[in-house]
Amino acid sequence: MQLLGKLVMRGPLYAIAVAGLLGVLSLLVLPCAILSAAIIALVQLRKGGMQALAVIIGTLVFVTIGSEWIATRPGLDFPILIILLVPVYLGAMFLRGTESQGIAISVIIACAAGFALSVQIYSGDAALFWSDWLKEVMTGMQNITFEGFEKNDSLSILNGIIAMLLGFAAVSSLLLARWMQSALYNPGGFKQEFYHLSTPRMLFWNIVGLLGIIFLVDELLFKNLFIVLASIYFFQGVAVMHCNVSRLRRSPVNLLLPYFLMIFVPQFVIAGMACMGMVDVFLNFRKLPG
Description:
single chain; globular; 77% helix
């Protein structure tokens, strides 16, 4: 990754070439969209907004042309990178200005919540919108049936889950970009910055108030936006975990179990980390005696 960062920092044309190629590849391999957005975020963090905008425009041209030559799967023909661009750009802008990962992540998750709200307003029925999309995506897939989503009633909160996953992808791009920047110009700086990741206490009460109003208006929309907005505190919980493993001088092996469990029971791990992050807003676990 450090070599990739050095290549991108050689100039905007290099950044466009790398981000564009990864953007085209993301039509076949979705995680490439995270890498492509990370390149754009790195340019924003190091060179500023104007050069990042130039790279975004060049990347979009690259992806538009390249997508004409790639056969994609049903329902996945739309470049995910396009959805990530705005939250990643804004997140990098705020991180560059505030040097606070917590604030930058909050901005990205706010964009994800706006995405969920936009789908609801545009479609009039987000559950129906995403169920139609799922049916298209599952065309030709083996061992996966649409009935499974209907049985566990996950369709009603699918809008929030998808928006949360998009938020996670955008945050991953931003953190990856920050890590590359640190590796190139400030070795060790990313780790210390991540250990101190936190969100303002006032933000917590603003979210509570906003969700309270939404609950009175639309209970289903409340459930979906709660899923998205609560994910802000997932990252704070992860930061608490990493910081305390380091502070208490425990082996990094202790971090493997939560990530291993996330593969098999992600809903419980994400909820647990989010709860830890929320409590940390008030107690600050990173200052408790070890």
